[in-house]
Amino acid sequence: MKKTKKILPLLLAASIAVSLCACGGTPSAPTPTPDAATETVKTGIVIEATMHALTIEARDGSTYSFVTDDSTEFADDGEDLGDTVSVGYEGEYQQNALAKVIKVVEKSAEGTVTPVPEATEASASPASSTDPDTIKYIIAVVKDASMHNMTVSWQDRDYLILKDDDTTVDGAIEVGNTVRIFHYGDIADGITALRIDLMVEDGDDIKYINGEVIDASMNNICVDYDGHQYNISKDDDTKSDSVSVGDQVRVYHHGDIQDGIVATRIIKL
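The chain above was modelled as a monomer; its predicted structure follows.
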């Protein structure tokens, strides 16, 4: 029994020695710690902005959505629709990535932020910048439209706007519609549109209200307008932005406003 007790420690020591020899007698190197995520930047024009979210459209037409929180650094006073901004974030881009830094690269000087039913209300002096890479926009009335071009009236002048395979068109554009046209550089006759958004449908009885969303679901929203709450329905023909409770919206509709009316278009302001 005493010999067995002495042999066991010797066997254990021998086993450890063999193990060290097999490994070269030195411990393996520690696994390197991955570097911190590299900050990446996307640049584009602001096409949607709320208190805690931002969507931009890059030059190639790609859209990128970001969210913000208390850690987000705003390098300027604030961004508006139509502004060109750079958004810094960490890691590989994913939808609704957290924005770390938002910086305004170029303020938009053409058009206005809030969609309006009349082009004269949207008119503004042309931008002084002549940088051909700057994305700008105008809000104008369609006077003629075809598959590959359209004529619009802006600031008491007609412009021929071209469309190509890269032009994004939101909605069926017809004569009399009010549209927002994104383009590079200063507006000019024969310029190619990057994007054309339908602002309001044509029709003598089309009206609208502005209000705050009190409740929202797939088929209807409740809007507080002028101290009254209206339940607004949506059907298959309703064109609607994605809206949430607390958003300011413009609701287009036929006839006078009343509870249960069907919206023709809902735009988030």
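The mean pLDDT is 74.
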